[in-house]
Amino acid sequence: MIDRRKFLSIGLIGLSSVALSSCKLNPLKPSIDKENLWKNPPDSTKYRYGFIDMQGRWVIEPQFDRDSNFSSDRIAPVFIRRYVDTQENGLIYSGIINASGTWVKEPELGLELNYAFSEGLIGATIRSNPGYHSRKDMGGYLSTSGSWIIEATFPVGPEGAVNYFSQANSFIQEPYAVVSILINKEAERNPRYLQGIINKKGDYLIEPRFGFIGGYFYTGFSNVGLTVATETTKDDALYGFIDGSGSWVIKPTFKNTHTFMGNYAWARDTVSGLEGTIDQNGEWVIPPQYSYLILTDDTYAVAKDPKTELVGVLDLATGEWAKEPQWYSAWVEHFGAYITAKETEDGLVGMYSMQTGETIIEPKYKYISYDEPLIIAQDPDTELYGYIDISGEWVIQPAYRQASDFYEGLASVSSNT
Q: Tens digit of pLDDT for each residue in 111-130?
């Protein structure tokens, strides 16, 4: 599932490098079998991830060190870290389980998998020094059985990635994935990355020559066969749009921009830093005059008025406010059907109808994220996460340190005990 918030990056797996476990083992000795060290259970399940069903019952007990999602194949990647005194960052392992928690592929030392399968494949990185990212790290793709389908021949280095596969869409008419490749592998300083696009055979459809390619979107959102790209990875790189051949259709002239929603895309002006909407020719439809703007489709947008610094709902047909700015911050949920928002910086979050502004869920949560069938919510008193329904009632009580959306009836959550 693609995150619908424009400020979150896609497909990167670097978060797994964060130390999630406090499990300490004895210093490494020649007799320690590092390949099987993952079998040593941690002292506590607190902070560990497992999977619950929609009644909040543990189906797979908390034992992993990162969240992940089940795919339609009813399998999920899992990540384990084991600490030893001579390995400051710990040893990393990744494996694959089915919905009953049985191993499809036992954890492998130095293997780091993405968060979920897509199109029957999952991005996998071999860490040359398990527990650390290095210039020698290589990426490829595994099948649902855990075998290599695309060998780990892509030099991803410490910051690159083999991202998830997208369905065929109006941009490219076959499944594809964006890969971020370390170009100057032998250089001692200033690693340089470029992005390209591959097919399920591992062949390049677009050679790695772009600083960034934002190639992920649902055709249901837009049939405009263009995606965002930059020429370089520099901080001041400008954004434009390319087609499926990698040719520029809208030249890189914007400070930032995002995938088309319907017939429009939001864009940030290079001079003013304000945001508006553009058409398929790169022309401004709504001039850049908002602090930020989030498109839901080609009907409405959530926008911040730079004069009041408040957020409202903009009618794209008229350019007028459909709902006057009233929130301190707001974001889009459930494919544009709802807005989650808070009225002050420290205020509580509620959920509102995009079309009418009607209050759907009263503002009484610290955080809300809606992706059917249940809504993730954070209790403001305990700061723990649980799940509510559309009426705002707790279905699964807040008892978790972290919570994810449900996939195939299971959700990855982090234990608080």
A: 999 999 999 999 999 999 98
